[in-house]
Amino acid sequence: MSVITKIAAGEVIERPSSVVKELLENSLDAGSTRIAIDVEEGGAELIRVVDDGHGIHADDLVLAFANHATSKLATADDLFCVRTMGFRGEALSSIGGVARVTLQSRAAGAESGAEVVCHGGDLSGPRPWNGSPGTRIEVRQLFYNTPVRRKFLRSPATEIGHICETFTRIALARPGLHLTLRHNGKLVYEVPPVSTLLDRVGLFLGRDVRDKLYAIDAPQGPAHLYGFVADPSCDRGNAKLQYLFLNGRWIRDRALLHALQEGYRGLLMTGRYAIGLLFIDLPPEQVDVNVHPTKAEVRFRDANALYRLVLATVRNRLAEENLVSRLEVPKSGPVYAFPSEANGPALHEPRVAAGSPALFSQPGFPTFTRNPIVPANIAGTTPSAVAAEPEAFPLTEENDAAEAAHSNGVVQEAESPPAAEHAGDVKAIQLHNAYLVLETAEGMLVIDQHALHERILFEQIKERVAAGCLESQQLLIPEPVDLPAEQAALLLEQREALAALGLGIEHFGGDTVIVTRYPALLGKRPPAAILRTVVDHLAGKERLPTREQLLSDLMSLMACHAAVRSGDPLTPEEIAELVALRHLAADAHHCPHGRPTALLFTRQDLDRQFRRI
To answer: How sure is the predictor about 370, in pLDDT bands with cuts at 50, 70 and 90?
Structure first.
């Protein structure tokens, strides 16, 4: 039995933070409102958890350490409708097999409690204990009888870091819970109960992030998605601040976290990650939590519907916000947020100089029009209005088609005021052949000419792809390109999506493909170079994207290569045209690769920096 317990502990108890997680979940299932955790040496020497839950009866204390003994399942059918944090009955048995454990508990209403001691699986009989109602459990010398496991524990600083992360997940999931954490006698966290989730989030993520969170709330059939997503300016270099909770339980789900990232497509640069806290309430029968002993992985009955719910909710919520970046003032000075339409007037764009020429026009790629093509099924709506109501759960094919049309088209208000109606002439200059400095009614706007032109071209390409009228140049003599076998196969597999972008390829034999036509927008680039750029982009993906994702990636690639470069001098007419065309981009605040196209320095910022106020 000792060997069996140690094997089970290898799955359930990975490190001290695993012990903390299991004990905290037991306290939550006991209805606790206050939980105190004390650890020493990163949890390797001591983990103590004290709660005020309903406790354990003295007759059940010994049974608590038995394999697969649990009071949370009455019948086998309960396994398919789990409503508690724990249910497998493995945690205490596994912990008791690899540590020296003392369990003390007093049931609510009982005159006294009892305690049992379990050392490496050897269990003592119950003894009287006169503590307060609730449960107190001490885990000492973790892995003392499995020296190989103990040897591979990290430093106390690393282990307490993992414990803090476990603590944070529980605290975020239960705002009404009072929690304390001490390490080596020093207070690490004391988290009082709060009435709102935002207060708890601000405690762990900080005020800077809290002030840039956007609330989401999307009920859809039996599912309810709520929580917060952060402004793209709060991006991080890793995904550690992406939290996903299901019915109060922290879980890992690559698909749903991918949906969160996809909601920020075009707003974050490559290698940057969004901050998001997503909470999903779902009927227990719609999910299987009995996938792995750690209960961190789950299976959904309709995972695709949840994916689309997360993606649409995040994307539409961000579309409602004014995401124009602001220019950060020096550290010694104050920082001001960009005024939204609710708090102040929007930017006044300069009008286009009369008779300005087509902007960087290419053969077969005419100037932008003032009335972009709008898909018929969503004409007359604004970007934030499309799919403002969450789709039915599960989603229907009609809803899928509507979302696909929205993702491939540029949606504009029916009556968009022309740029000429904005007051004032163009007051913009070019600096270092890279940036445009523009006077606006709010202050000073610094524009990245390449990023803005890239966004405008991207929107134009989307319109033309959606309408099936993207111009391509047929080659009189197809150009052969030799590629490695796996890259040639990858291109041929995506032949249909590439054709929609005006890039025609055929198999020529062996590892050679031929380019038969290419987008007219890229007329100055050799067809072979275009193809190699595309295949390098595809080969750099960890997994093959969907057709919609592939089209978006390649359209942004085309726009990037066709846009005016940093270092290109512009005439005053071209500057005026570029600034005026900001009206035609649905997301003019960011380029398709997630870089900001402009930074705002308000008049108030200027006055403060020059000590006028």
So the answer is: very low
DSSP 250-297: E-B-HHHHHHHHHHTTTTS-TT-B--EEEEEE--GGGEE-TTSTT--B
Rounded distance, CA 220 to CA 332, Å? 47
Predicted local confidence at residue 202, as pLDDT: 87
58, 59, 117, 356 from 127: Cα distances, Å = 9, 11, 9, 92
Q: Is 238 helix (H, G, I), strand (E, B) or coil?
A: coil
How far CA 182 is from CA of 108, 164, 481, 523, in Å, comes to 26, 10, 64, 65
Longest dimension (CA), the chain: 95
Reported confidence tier of residue 64, pLDDT bands at 50, 70, 90: confident
pLDDT at position 589 is 87
**DSSP-derived 3-state class of residue 74:** coil
Omega cis (within 30) before 394: yes
Q: Which residues contact 569 (CB under 8 A, 6 or more apart)?
A: 430, 433
Please tell me what DSSP assigns to residue 596.
Answer: B
Q: Are 5 and 94 in contact (CB under 8 A)?
A: yes
Neighbours of 534 (CB within 10 A): 23
Give yes or no for a contact between 103 and 135, defined as CB atoms under 8 angstroms apart: yes
Residues ≥6 apart with Cβ < 8 Å to 523: 362, 363, 364, 473
Q: What is the pLDDT of residues 157-184, one digit of tens each?
A: 999 999 999 999 999 999 999 999 999 9
Rounded to 5 degrees, what are φ and ψ at 35?
-135, 130
Q: DSSP letter string over 186-215?
A: EEEEEE---SSHHHHHHHHH-HHHHTTEEE
Output the CA–CA distances (angstroms, integers) from residue 452 to 367, 584, 598, in the order listed. Answer: 15, 11, 8
| 257, β-bridge pairs | none
Q: What is the CA radius of gyration of the chain?
A: 30
Instruction: Calculate the average pLDDT of the chain.
Output: 79
Residues 414, 575 contacting (CB under 8 angstroms): no
Q: Please report the pLDDT score of residue 11 as a whole number.
A: 60
Each residue's pLDDT tens digit, 428-485 = 899 999 999 988 888 888 999 999 999 998 888 888 888 888 888 888 889 999 888 8
Give which of 34, 52, 29 is closest to 135, Cα–Cα: 52
Burial (CB count <10 Å: 0-12, 13-18, 19+), residue 38 = middle
Structure tokens at 135: 């449960």
Q: How many C-beta atoms lie closer than 10 Å to residue 451's C-beta?
A: 24
In the structure, what pLDDT confidence band is assigned to residue 74 with cuts at 50, 70 and 90? low
Which three-class secondary structure state does DSSP give residue 223?
Answer: strand
Rounded to an integer, what distance in angstroms lies between the CA atom of residue 164 and that of residue 157?
Answer: 10
All domains in the chain, ordered by first residue: 2-191 (3.30.565.10), 197-319 (3.30.230.10), 323-374+409-613 (3.30.1540.20)
Quick check: 169 and 277 in contact, CB under 8 A? no
| Pairing between β-strand 134-140 and β-strand 46-51 as defined by DSSP bridges | antiparallel
CA distance 475 to 484: 23
Tokens of 375: 């898909």
* pTM beyond cutoff 0.85: no
HEC sequence for 509-534: ECCEEEEEEEEHHHCCCCHHHHHHHH
